[in-house]
């Protein structure tokens, strides 16, 4: 089943996960021929329902996790609404969902608000659950590969390079038959963690070529805008001379640009993206269970793909009831398990979290408790 406005998904865990956005369902959590996602033998199951909302970048990964968990735990129902990171954080802070998925960790002001939402003034946890490249996709007849330095990419999205045969693009693509065609950048219409990471990269790597501050909302008047990663993918795929940015599992069959890093051009790949995360420190000033990362978008390290996002699972350290704490804890333990990370990587091309880092995160998830 394909929802209107969504691209076909590799993992179709449609039981319950779309219940917040539609009334449709499925008799099976898997598509025909799809192997069930791996689940640990000792997975902790809960009875009842768990609600979450947020990042559309982790939409495909979440389908996979929900499919695996619900097939192993028949009495569990997990509802995830991929409304975008900003809306997900808002719903979490308003106590409308049990946890949020966000491509940006809670900022200082949101961390303060979280202490009002979480029971007893407890803090929220920023748990990195999903690491994936942000791909630059394009639709240009007769061109199936592009090399784009960060400065050129910034000028394209800032609408200062407006034709595909511009000399600055041609300089780095001498073998491409670039047409005299208007460039149509497609950007996000919603508050988006993917946008925050993409503009964060441009601000760090492109220097003066990108005069805007990083943020979750697009900083200029858009040429064309779309809702969610799926919306951008559809708009680029159906357009002519279009270019956009999406979480890598939404690329479909579209070509992706190679990005300039340290004198070379690097293809989008989970292995090259993982190098950024592995070298990034945790944000200063947080509590011991806050694992927000300071990503080094401006890296010049060879073989590193610099445009990445980390989707955080944002939860309370303390909930009102033991059942609620158990549901959040049990599902996030599966997300962070070796099996959960491998299942998501197989379906989406994400980079599985390193073992030592996973164990550190699992210690924090284990600390989730209740006031009871």
Automatic annotation (TrEMBL):
Gene3D superfamilies reported in the protein's UniProt record: Periplasmic binding protein-like II
PROSITE patterns: PROKAR_LIPOPROTEIN
Keywords: Phosphate transport, Signal, Transport
Record's signal peptide: 1-25
Taxonomy, superkingdom: Bacteria
Entries under InterPro entries matching the protein: ABC_phos-bd_PstS (IPR005673), PBP_domain (IPR024370), Phosphate-bind_PstS (IPR050962)
Keyword Signal found: yes
All residue ranges annotated as the PBP domain in the record: 47-339
The family this protein is said to belong to: Belongs to the PstS family.
Record-given protein name: Phosphate-binding protein
Organism from which the protein derives: Streptomonospora wellingtoniae
Annotated gene: pstS
């Amino acid at each position: 089943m394909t929802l209107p406005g969504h691209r076909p998904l590799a993992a179709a865990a449609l039981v319950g996960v779309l219940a917040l956005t539609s009334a449709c369902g499925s008799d099976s959590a898997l598509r025909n021929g799809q192997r069930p996602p791996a689940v640990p033998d000792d997975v902790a199951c809960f009875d009842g329902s768990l609600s979450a909302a947020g990042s559309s970048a982790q939409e495909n990964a979440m389908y996979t996790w929900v499919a695996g968990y619900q097939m192993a735990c028949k009495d569990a129902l997990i509802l995830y609404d991929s409304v975008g990171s900003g809306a997900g954080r808002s719903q979490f802070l308003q106590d409308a969902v049990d946890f949020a998925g966000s491509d940006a960790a809670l900022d200082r002001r949101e961390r303060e608000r979280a202490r009002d939402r979480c029971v007893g003034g407890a803090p929220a946890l920023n748990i990195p659950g999903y690491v994936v490249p942000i791909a630059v996709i394009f639709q240009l007849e007769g061109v199936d590969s592009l090399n784009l330095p960060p400065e050129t990419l910034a000028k394209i999205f800032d609408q200062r390079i407006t034709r595909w045969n511009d000399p600055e693009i041609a300089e780095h693509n001498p073998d491409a038959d670039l047409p005299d065609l208007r460039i149509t950048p497609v950007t996000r219409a919603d508050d988006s963690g993917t946008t925050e990471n993409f503009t964060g990269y441009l601000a760090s790597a492109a220097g003066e070529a990108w005069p805007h501050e990083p943020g979750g909302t697009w900083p200029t008047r858009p040429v064309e805008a779309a809702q969610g990663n799926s919306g951008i993918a559809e708009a680029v795929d159906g357009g002519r001379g279009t270019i956009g940015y999406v979480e890598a599992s939404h690329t479909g069959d579209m070509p992706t640009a190679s990005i300039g890093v340290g004198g070379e051009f690097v293809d989008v790949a989970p292995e090259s993206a993982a190098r950024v995360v592995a070298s990034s420190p945790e944000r200063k000033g947080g509590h011991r269970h806050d694992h927000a990362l300071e990503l080094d978008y401006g890296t010049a390290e060879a073989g590193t793909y610099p445009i990445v996002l980390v989707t955080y699972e944002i939860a309370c350290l303390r909930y009102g009831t033991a059942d609620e704490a158990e549901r959040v804890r049990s599902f996030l333990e599966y997300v962070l398990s070796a099996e959960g990370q491998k299942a998501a990587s197989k379906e989406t091309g994400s980079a599985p979290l390193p073992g030592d880092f996973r164990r550190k995160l699992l210690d924090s998830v284990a600390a989730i408790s209740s006031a009871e």
